[in-house]
Design goal:
Heat Shock Protein 90; kinase; globular; 29% helix; 3 helices; HATPase_C_sf; six-stranded antiparallel sheet; serine/threonine-protein kinase; alpha+beta; ATP-binding
Length: 147
């Protein structure tokens, strides 16, 4: 399910917040810019006082989902993090929305070895309480909930 928050997409890494403890980050269209998004996601979870083991798992899922969007999907793309739960229960919902799958690229030179890619879905499934994909006209949202 795509988030319903206004997002200024582009090369900016501005954060848009809502009353529901959601934070939205536009994703830069190049893999080199994703480290800044991961750092901002880590700061958001630190401010929410997410336990470090939960935050570590959530950051790994964030990394997998945002890399997938930038490498394999059409821009624009955005990351939405949501803190869920009360004082005793805590969960993080991660949503990455993009404009749908990109056309397959021809990789010149040496092809990637199978062990170098293709494990993202398994990592997300292993670390998530729930995860899924919503495909709709004009885009795709991949989401995961970490508890």
């Amino acid at each position: 399910m795509p988030h319903n928050l206004p997002v200024k997409l582009g090369n900016s890494l501005e954060t848009v917040s809502s009353a529901r403890t959601d934070v939205v980050f536009p994703l830069p269209p190049i893999p080199e810019g994703l480290a800044a998004v991961r750092r901002r996601a880590a700061r958001a979870m630190q401010q929410w006082r997410i336990p470090s083991d939960l935050a570590d798992d959530a950051l790994l899922v964030v990394s997998e989902l945002i890399t997938n969007a930038v490498v394999h999907a059409l821009p624009p793309a955005s990351l939405c993090l949501s803190r869920q739960g009360g004082r005793t229960a805590c969960a993080v919902r991660i949503e990455v929305t993009d404009a749908g799958p990109a056309l397959p690229r021809h990789h010149g030179g040496s092809p990637r070895q199978p062990e170098e890619s293709g494990r993202g879905s398994a990592i997300v499934a292993a670390l998530s309480a729930r995860s899924g994909t919503a495909i709709y006209q004009g885009g795709t949202t991949r989401w995961a909930e970490i508890q």
